């Protein structure tokens, strides 16, 4: 089995880079936040590490070799004490003005990895803090991650990089724009995180928070709609955008639970059918959700509300949101609620759907859960 390689820059990536851009004294040595847990996660997933670093003028009067060797050796010792070892350390000593092919973004020092059939280049990646590190990744034909640093910006932290490479997360980003609304949705089905939701409707935000929190996935929703007219378009289009994001994140749907299960001693009514289910109590309220990522959109709702709205959300739009979600996700959802308090009923519905989603979205091997061969 071939081995994926993580090519890693040194200064500003493994260790923090000082203002003078030279780590030539022990007192300047600081590990980059989160680097050790991330490398351990990658190591345990079978990755090996190769350090690739430009050290301008190393060995010259301006940067004596001895000044470099001590802090560098201590850095390696710290990593080794945590079980992290580097397969190779590639150091270019030239200045940018020389334009040598061994200096990043050139790949002269790493050419042997392109010829090594034991290396899984399709999974290999490069992590660095500068544009030249990303250009190095492009020249190698591998994925590049630019760390977020004060000096050079970047979008990633070490935890996010390890998650992206090891967990192979199911993610999606959807932008839905019409004359009535602009909706942005971001999903990571394999990362639990605090939801970030803003639709202009406070109670609706609170309900969408329940989907992410109890569904066990990272959820971001930003919606701008024609609320000066009414709430309909914002709620409907948010459901459509979220459903599209779910569909895209699941891809072929290989390896998902698809259904989940209901407690065997508390089955859903026969009319709801044998779908993925969750029964959730909330004070006097009981909500039941059963769903199937069948690819066939269908929504059945059994419940009623006494109030015209809860907070700033019209109650008539609650079922409409779930119908829109089903239409875009290709989801079969049966939803039932009983109770006296409309706030409790709506919140219990969202939580029950979220818990059913958590079960259905769980990874369960690599097969396709369908005898048809497609979902």
UniProtKB/TrEMBL annotation:
It catalyses: L-histidinol phosphate + H2O = L-histidinol + phosphate; D-erythro-1-(imidazol-4-yl)glycerol 3-phosphate = 3-(imidazol-4-yl)-2-oxopropyl phosphate + H2O. CDD domains: IGPD (cd07914). Keywords: Amino-acid biosynthesis, Cytoplasm, Histidine biosynthesis, Hydrolase, Lyase, Magnesium, Metal-binding, Multifunctional enzyme. HAMAP family: Bifunc_HisB (MF_01022), HisB (MF_00076). Its main location: cytoplasm. GO terms for molecular function: histidinol-phosphatase activity; imidazoleglycerol-phosphate dehydratase activity; metal ion binding. Residues 170-375 are annotated as: Imidazoleglycerol-phosphate dehydratase. Mg(2+) binds at residues 9, 11, 129. Its cofactor is Mg(2+). It is found in: Cytoplasm. Its EC number is 3.1.3.15, 4.2.1.19. SUPFAM superfamilies: HAD-like, Ribosomal protein S5 domain 2-like. The active site is at 9 (nucleophile), 11 (proton donor). GO terms for cellular component: cytoplasm. Residues 1-169 are annotated as: Histidinol-phosphatase. This is Histidine biosynthesis bifunctional protein HisB. GO terms for biological process: L-histidine biosynthetic process. It comes from the Bacteria. Pathway: Amino-acid biosynthesis; L-histidine biosynthesis; L-histidine from 5-phospho-alpha-D-ribose 1-diphosphate: step 8/9; Amino-acid biosynthesis; L-histidine biosynthesis; L-histidine from 5-phospho-alpha-D-ribose 1-diphosphate: step 6/9. Pfam families: Hydrolase_like, IGPD. In the C-terminal section; belongs to the imidazoleglycerol-phosphate dehydratase family. In the N-terminal section; belongs to the histidinol-phosphatase family.
